[in-house]
Design goal:
The complex is a heterotetramer, with two copies of chain A (330 residues), one copy of chain B (293 residues) and one copy of chain C (526 residues). Chain A has 330 residues and is mostly helical. In chain A, 72% of the residues lie in helices and 2% in strands. The chains are: A mainly alpha (330), B alpha/beta (293), C alpha/beta (526). The structure holds adenosine-5'-triphosphate (2 copies), beta-D-ribopyranose and magnesium ion (MG) (2 copies). Chain C: Pfam families: ABC_tran (PF00005).
Chain lengths: 330, 293, 526, 330
């Protein structure tokens, strides 16, 4: 009986972070403490800013994934979708730049968003209309996006036009009152997402679909529409991440975004969202993304680990972070 | 005196060649740290371009880097971040895959990917009398891979050598084994195979051996893996030559960079390793039995 | 109170081995996260007795049963078996000791077959190899015993709720037992399925098994029980000899005051023209050519046995399963509903019989459950109006008498009856003008039943119309203006006025010879 | 009663393949037909033998995954576990070869099996004792195994001793009455697995745990033990696959088994096993593995697709295969 296993009453999810959801934040705190012990530079303003800025990509994509996963889906295509969107955006900007100059940048952003939404729509349609397990459907589109970027780049690189480079740079490297722009963007995305997930009808429906599809259906919710919408949100988030990403690396290649899907899902799960749906935690997801980036950072800053074993230590730390997260729930 | 810090940023060992890079980088670090008490070499590997960007940011955020030796995952993506390090006053050594803006580097050490493809092609054109059917296996879609293929295609231009097929096998021997099996099933007559990397060549050779097909006159690779060099030394008929693209170039680069500090002799400039054909005659020179590669 | 609590346990069966209790609970208490749900409960169960436990929804009956069968561990107090203290680490321990529980909520794996479910954890076969045949045969026998007619190979997800309940009983009864606990086993069963089950219970008793029996159908309690323990608000009211304890008296003990009458008096109403007309409905595999008409202000009953196809008819109407219709007319105009959302927009509300699987999000809090089907109505703006939602919950809690120990509760933590009330409140939030209620009082205690009946009556007085699908004949007879009886996917009879009697309903529900006929007595609506 | 008629008798899963489970086989047949149309060489005995032999690794591992997945788990670590086991086995054989000669081979196989079982046990313990989402737990151990093989090989190659090579070769390249040995091995593994999953108490419980954990627990099944056992079976299967793999290229490298986990899960799902547990199909899994290998083969044998777009076409075909599989269920 579900109620026997049911967890003790938990604080309302929302803007404020309840106690029961403190897990990922505790894990983050523990990690930061360890980091400081290992190398005091870890806490330098500079390093912190770098790491958090960097985590923005994964965080933004993972916020979208929080919708998909809490609605009971899964999207493996996000990494290659990011590469594909980046490629489309850069090609478009390079194409219009000669005629419109730096206005190519906002136009390119719009194109990126539209592309992302279209990609999400495609994923959603295959999953809901085709009634195909999301794992397989998005594994398929992962191959498709990856191939398209390979094709677009002729197996090489799609690089942004020099003329646009400097104008675009601030989107990643700039700051407002000292806060790097990617951090602001991801905070804005998280705020909007938290609002949508916790404070709108759509968010309610999304979680309901993930919790029990039948109950949702009998309550007059169009399960297919809600699920598709979650994939669309995911696509839009990937596009936003791509928009921030372009100035950092200045190019899309067939290896851009490789294995991001694993990082994204890991961030979401570490953050406390249930992989089987029915429970989404936006701020947890953000914490999860920051945790992953801090772990990578710690690997660079510490000198203990043979370079060959970095992946092993990362694996161990992720498992420990999950344990901390889990334990705080008792 | 303050220690001079040389950071080395390279791709993680994800296949044979990069493994060689990691091996030689670690070896160089150990040797130099021991030999020069006032130089410290730190080696960091990264599994992807964005991780590599992160890694160099992290290194430079927490210490003053006197020099950065970098083998970029990809040229485009690393250009701007390396420039940022340069702007902080570090000496920049770029290895293998060049940056988009050569002005950034103080020192450039590289192999010649075009030559790897081109020299192999020339060898085949000559030995096969300018005609025959070829199949090609290419690596991971990257600039290096592109350059090698391009060099190869330029090399066979004007001859009657025909490329029947060209597919990615991701510099992975398993995938190359399967791909070669499929090539063999598809084409009744294959005169020569070129895998643009020796990891793949291993899989190719295994597939040919299994098929029992005898018409394949040459199966060539590239990079100078010790197993393949050994074949060349032994006078193997199917793999009589090899093109070097030694991962030890990272070691060369680190030593040169250290020399810049220790030797008080400026070492700026470009250093391009040749990719001459290795034949039975000179193979011993390229054979390092202790390297993992 | 004239039936005095039995302070000193005396055997209702006279002397004999029965006088030593098999299972004894001493001062049990249970709290969930600091909220006390049961306190100071002491009772004993003796071999060969049927010991009924009754109480209002949320009184703590199911919780007590879970304590006795190892599913929960008591916060205080002790259990004794055969005079020796015993503590269960889990249900497996209790099973090993011979205690079986038939859950109030169905607890089966839907993806597995009936046989597989029955034998989970105690599969037959030696040397690692399963003996499929033996299991299938044993399952078939066990199913026959409880009067369940599904194939042992059927997937549990494909059989009706009522049959799942029977499968669950068959599963619990497999093997030999000393104590069997039935938590509302008949709530989802119709009249004709109840009898075989009660026979089994009596048979068990005769074999010397001790039975704990929970039901809101007090007539069953009267028929079966030797002793009755009454709970109220998590405390013992007392244990009584069943002799002379009438349902009315039981109800009064449960609620703690004199209990009036169950069914509200019929009031004359205007039953006007048709609001919903369904012609030639076909739901492949379930419903064959059913036509019916619902009038404004009418309460139309739908009777039938398990598998009659009543649920499927309306699931088909709402677009929840493939179906075809000769015609559907709403207020005289042709209508078609592709989804429950469209039906809701047209003013049709449907309350599912399967509250756990299709009705409520058990892991969610109450307010989101309440408003889930009416989000657009409750929150007309983009953002959620949580204050409004809170008020709605308060109002629902008050008007449907939902009893909760904590505002923070998840739906799954409510007692079964309170879940049902929450579900009713959820459906009503859309203010449907046509309400289809599938098993409205499943698991509801007697006091609340009468409230729900009064509520349905007040709806039709407001000019709404109601279709009641129910397995309780008296409920239909007491409430409805007209009853359609379904059998094997067809309408097999229509009753109204004085013709609405138990025997008539039963006749049409079971006998194929009673061809479709209209039987109306003198007091037909008017 | 209507009841008896209403529930359509479903075929019992088992040795014989019921109609409802024909999906993957239909998809396979469709694929073979298309393959033949595209290139008649597709059906040459040689090509078929190659492809099926190749599919053996994935098939064997995927058979193990069928247990894990039908019990409600997931194992992302199989690919790197395969590499790790291969590495351990080769190092061990090379070490004992000088003293025991070719007897090193059977000894090595035993070591591989023990290693596989230990790895599976570790995965199982982290998931059940640590109560960590299998996705995250095995993502962690995936990093661990991958790092260990990288470390063991110094990032390069762990090659089998020349002296053992020829003796061991037949395990991959040999045949019995014309049937390649890897095919025989995978058939044997599938037979045993089908017996265990469909005909033993353990198999029944494994599926029950995946179908509904609460029901299983309340029925007195030790959920943790059953799940752990599934991971152990998975480990053993990976070891068997590794044993067949070693003679193929005679080496383990840090790229051995890369991304096998995705192929394995895809094979299992295409085969009809439910990703959320409660339903396992051994023969379907085998068909799924063969399908994947045929798709890859078809890509090379056909001349339609630019090398850049291969991944896209593969993605599309996988989705179509799932559609065929799905449709045949109606
Ligand atoms: N897991 C739980 N967590 C918190 N409260 C619970 C839990 N289970 C039950 N309760 C509370 O305990 C009280 C008693 O519930 P119980 O299910 O025992 O009632 P019941 O007498 O069986 O009622 P019904 O007749 O409706 O089935 C209810 O208030 C319920 O909300
Ligand atoms: N998904 C399904 N697949 C196959 N058979 C089913 C399925 N669902 C229900 N049945 C069968 O269809 C018949 C009709 O079901 P159901 O019991 O819901 O009808 P009903 O008239 O609503 O009865 P009641 O509400 O009294 O239980 C039953 O025999 C049931 O076993
Ligand atoms: O990583 C590359 C390697 O695999 C290839 O063979 O040579 C060049 C390298 O950059
Ligand atoms: Mg109850
Ligand atoms: Mg029904």
């Amino acid at each position: 009986m579900a109620d026997l296993a049911a967890a003790p009453p938990r604080a309302e999810p929302g803007w404020s972070i309840g106690w029961g959801d403190a897990g990922p934040f505790l894990a983050l705190a523990a990690l930061i403490a360890i980091g400081f012990l290992v190398n005091p530079d870890f806490l330098s303003a500079n390093n912190i800013a770098n790491v958090v800025t960097r985590s923005a990509f994964i965080a933004i994509i993972a916020i979208g994934a929080t919708f998909v996963i809490s609605s009971g889906g899964l999207d493996l295509s996000v990494g290659s979708m990011a590469a594909f969107i980046t490629g489309v955006m850069i090609l478009f900007m390079n194409w219009v730049a000669p005629s419109v100059g730096t206005a190519a940048i906002p136009l390119g952003m719009a194109v990126a968003l539209v592309t992302g939404i279209a990609c999400g729509l495609m994923n959603g349609a295959i999953v809901t209309l085709g009634r195909i397990e999301p794992f397989i459907a998005t594994l398929g589109t992962m191959g498709i996006f990856r191939a398209l970027i390979t094709y677009m780049s002729d197996g090489g690189t799609v690089a942004i036009d020099r003329s646009l480079r400097d104008a675009y740079r601030p989107v990643y490297f700039g700051d407002v009152l000292g806060v790097p722009i990617p951090i602001l963007v991801s905070l804005a995305v998280a705020l909007v997402a938290a609002y949508v997930l916790y404070r709108t009808r759509y968010g309610r429906r999304c979680v309901a679909v993930g919790a029990n599809e039948d109950v949702a259906r009998y309550s007059g919710i169009s399960v297919a529409r809600v699920r598709t919408m979650a994939f669309v949100i995911q696509g839009a988030c990937v596009a936003i991440a791509a928009i921030c990403y372009v100035p950092r690396l200045g190019a899309a290649t067939p290896t851009t975004g490789l294995l991001w899907e694993l990082q994204v899902i890991t961030a979401v799960v570490i953050g406390g969202t249930a992989l089987r749906g029915g429970r989404g935690r936006i701020w947890g997801t953000v914490a999860g993304a920051v945790i992953l980036e801090f772990i990578a950072n710690l690997m660079v800053l510490s000198d203990f680990v043979s370079e060959y074993l970095v992946a092993a230590v990362q694996g161990v730390i992720i498992i420990i972070a999950m344990l901390i997260q889990r334990m705080s729930k008792r | 005196a303050e220690k001079k810090i040389i950071a080395v940023s390279i791709p993680a060992a994800d296949h044979g060649w990069t493994a060689g890079v990691v091996y030689h980088a670690n070896a160089a670090a150990k040797e130099i740290n021991k030999a020069f008490p006032d130089i410290e070499v730190i080696v960091k590997t990264s599994p992807s371009a964005s991780a590599q960007v992160s890694a160099i940011e992290d290194l430079s955020a927490t210490r003053k880097l006197d020099a950065l030796v970098i083998l970029p995952h990809s040229s485009e993506e690393l250009t701007t971040p390396v420039k940022a390090i340069k702007d902080k006053g570090s000496f920049i050594t770029v290895v293998d895959r060049g940056l988009n803006d050569p002005k950034i580097q103080d020192l450039y050490v590289a192999g010649d990917n075009i030559a790897v493809g081109f020299n192999t092609a020339k060898f085949l054109v000559e030995k096969m009398g300018g005609k025959g059917n070829l199949v090609v296996l290419r690596g991971i879609p990257t600039v290096i891979d592109d350059e090698r293929i391009k060099g190869f295609q330029d090399g066979i231009k004007g001859s009657d050598l025909k490329i029947l097929d060209i597919q990615y096998a991701n510099w992975n021997s398993d995938e190359a084994f399967k791909l070669m099996q499929d090539y063999l099933a598809k084409y009744p007559q294959i005169d020569a195979v070129w895998a643009n990397d020796d990891d793949m060549l291993l899989g190719v050779l295994e597939a040919i051996k299994q098929s029992g097909r005898k018409e394949i006159k040459f199966a060539l690779g590239g990079n100078g893996m010790k197993e393949i060099i050994a074949k060349v030394m032994a006078g193997d008929a199917v793999t009589p030559v090899e093109t070097p693209y030694p991962p030890s170039m990272i070691k060369t680069a680190i030593y040169l960079t250290a020399a810049h500090f220790a030797g008080h002799a400026p070492v700026r400039g470009s250093f391009k390793l040749d990719a001459p054909l290795i034949t039975k005659a000179n193979a011993a020179e390229y054979y390092f039995p202790d390297s993992p590669f | 109170m004239n039936a005095a609590p039995v302070s000193q346990p005396v055997s209702p069966m006279g002397a004999g081995p029965g006088s030593v209790p098999v299972l004894r609970a001493e001062r049990l208490a249970k709290a969930f996260g600091g909220v006390s749900v049961l306190s100071d409960i002491s009772l004993d169960i003796r071999p060969g007795e049927i010991h009924a436990v009754i109480g209002e929804n949320g009184a703590g009956k199911s919780t007590l049963m879970r304590l006795l069968s190892g599913y929960l561990r008591p916060s205080e107090g002790a259990l004794w078996m055969d005079g020796a203290p015993i503590a269960f680490q889990g249900p497996a321990d209790a099973q090993a000791a011979g205690i079986a529980l038939v859950h109030q909520e169905i607890l089966l794996a839907e993806a597995l077959s009936v046989t597989e479910n029955i034998f989970i954890g105690r599969e037959l076969g030696g040397f690692g190899r399963l003996d499929e045949r033996a299991m299938r045969e044993a399952a078939a026998a066990q199913l026959a015993e409880v009067g369940c007619k599904v194939s042992p190979r059927a997937r549990v997800g494909d059989i009706s709720l009522a049959n799942r309940q029977l499968v669950q009983i068959a599963k619990a009864l497999l093997g030999t037992h000393r104590v069997v606990i039935f938590d509302e086993p008949t709530a989802v069963l119709t009249h004709d399925e109840v009898d075989p089950l009660l026979d089994i219970i009596v048979k068990l008793k005769q074999r010397g098994v001790a039975i704990l029996y929970i039901s809101h159908r007090l007539d069953e309690v009267e028929r079966l029980a030797d002793r009755v323990t009454v709970l109220r608000d998590g405390r013992m009211v007392g244990t009584y000899d069943a002799e002379g304890l009438t349902p009315h008296r039981m109800a009064s003990l449960m609620v703690g005051r004199e209990f009036a009458s169950l069914y509200p008096a019929r009031v004359a109403r205007d039953i006007a023209g048709p609001v919903l007309e369904i012609a030639h409905a076909q739901v492949p595999g379930f419903v064959h050519d059913v036509s019916l008409t619902l009038h404004k202000g009418e309460i139309l009953g739908l009777a039938g046995m398990i598998g009659a196809g009543r649920t499927e008819l309306f699931e088909g109407l709402l677009g929840l399963r493939p179906a075809s219709f000769g015609a559907v007319r709403l207020y005289g105009k042709p209508a078609h509903f592709a989804s429950p959302a469209q039906a809701a927009a047209a003013g049709i509300g449907y309350l599912t019989e399967d509250r756990k699987g299709k009705g409520l999000l058990l892991g969610e809090r109450l307010a989101p459950n309440l408003t889930l089907a009416a989000l657009d109505r409750v929150h007309p703006l983009a953002g959620l109006d949580l204050a409004r939602e809170g008020q709605l919950l308060e109002r629902a809690v008050a008007s449907y008498d939902i009893r909760l120990r904590s505002r923070d509760a998840r739906a799954g933590q409510l007692s079964g009856g309170n879940q049902q009330k929450l579900l009713l409140a959820k459906v009503m939030l859309n203010e449907p003008s046509i309400l289809v209620i599938d098993e409205p009082t499943r698991g509801i205690d007697i006091a609340n039943k009468s409230q729900i009946y009064a509520f349905i009556q007040s709806l039709v007085r407001e000019g709404r119309s109601c279709i009641v699908i129910s397995s309780e004949m008296q409920e239909l007879i007491g409430l409805c203006d007209r009853i359609l009886v379904m059998r094997s996917g067809r309408i097999n009879g229509e009753l109204s006025g004085d013709a609405m009697t138990e025997s008539n309903v039963a006749l049409h529900a079971t006998s194929s010879s009673a061809a479709h006929e209209k039987t109306s007595g003198r007091n037909a609506h008017g």
